[in-house]
Design a protein that fits this description.
Elements lengths: L1 E6 L4 H5 L7 H4 L9 H11 L2 E9 L11 E8 L4 E7 L11 E6 L2 E6 L2 E7 L6 H8 L19 H16 L7 H19 L5 E2 L1
Parallel strand pairs: 1-4
Antiparallel strand pairs: 1-5, 2-3, 2-8, 3-4, 5-6, 6-7
Helix pairs in contact: 3-6
């Protein structure tokens, strides 16, 4: 199974801070499209394309916005693996829950919290597994980056993307992540929104 969990919090003031926030026309969607898209993109990078989805979205904790603050989707990957995507801006916590990807199977499990591994375990471990845990393991005191406060999001990840695009333009090369790659996540999210609008009917991506 392969799951993505983005259980974040945004205040009512956050949505009221800009007329575009929480609108379909200018925001493009809610918690799934905005706060969850990078984790969803990473899930697709690891697992490959999604074949179909069944989804439900709701607005439960905010007022005056058009989009969801809670979204849940059951996904079937082209590989046959199943998974769940949960995205929300209605999950309060003091320091914020980290965005998490969980990959589990009969031979091992990997849980990635933000950019660190919370769990890295395999039935038959290699000599490198302990080294990976030590170098990339999660510090238990770490909170979710930007999960409760959007201003706490580290800009370095966006910066590296911009730098790579500029490098590609200057050198006539392809960027590491191109528009076609980005469209995969958008196609999945569009299928999720279609399914939710139809009461959870199965939608193909």
């Amino acid at each position: 199974m392969a799951d993505a969990y983005i259980k974040w919090w945004r205040t009512q003031e956050y949505y009221e801070s800009g007329a575009w926030r929480g609108t379909w026309k200018l925001d493009g969607g809610g918690a799934l499209m905005n706060q969850s898209i990078h984790t969803i993109d990473l899930l697709l990078y690891v697992m490959g394309d999604v074949k179909s989805v069944r989804a439900e979205t709701r607005l439960v904790a905010h007022e005056g916005i058009e989009v969801e603050d809670v979204g849940i989707a059951m996904v079937e990957f082209e590989s046959g693996a199943l998974g769940v995507i949960q995205g929300s801006t209605a999950c309060w916590s003091k320091n914020g829950h980290p965005a998490e990807i969980q990959i589990t199977g009969s031979q091992g499990s990997v849980f990635m919290s933000d950019d660190k591994f919370r769990l890295w375990e395999f039935a038959n471990e290699s000599e490198h597994d302990n080294e990976i845990r030590q170098q990339y393991g999660l510090n238990e005191n770490e909170a979710g980056a930007g999960a409760a406060d959007p201003s706490a999001i580290d800009f370095v990840w966006h910066q590296r993307n911009f730098e790579d695009v500029l490098h590609a333009l200057e050198n006539g090369t392809k960027p590491l992540v191109d528009g076609f790659e980005g469209r995969r996540s958008i196609a999945l999210l569009n299928a999720i929104y279609r399914s939710a609008a139809k009461g959870g009917e199965k939608e193909f991506v």
